[in-house]
Amino acid sequence: MKFKPLFDRVLVKRMAEDTKTAGGIIIPDTAKEKPSKGEVVAVGTGGRDEQGKTIPMTVKVGDKVLFGKWSGTEVKIEGEELLIIKEADVLGILE
Q: What is the reported pTM?
């Protein structure tokens, strides 16, 4: 992929959610919510502080992350649905 986010932005590929509930009920596509977890595909160089110094990114490519439900901008790059979010919108890294 030939896309690099700028500054403190992160490119995320959403992870697929389960299509069944714990009780075995199958959830139809129309009732599914978009997943709020994904895998980091690319990261920017980092934000800037008041003196202009670069603040390094906490997340890195390959991290599995949780992000806010309404975070970011959806884009389609090379036929793939991705999400560009700010690092501040990442709620945490899944281990």
A: 0.76
CATH topology of domain 9-15+27-94: 10 Kd Chaperonin, Protein Cpn10; Chain O (2.30.33)
Q: What are the residue boundaries of the structural domains of the chain, listed by start? A: 9-15+27-94
* Each residue's pLDDT tens digit, 65-88: 999 888 889 999 888 889 999 998
31: left (phi over 0), alpha (psi -120 to 50) or beta: alpha
Contact criterion met (CB below 8 Å) for 5 and 32: no
**What share of the chain in percent tops pLDDT 90?**
29
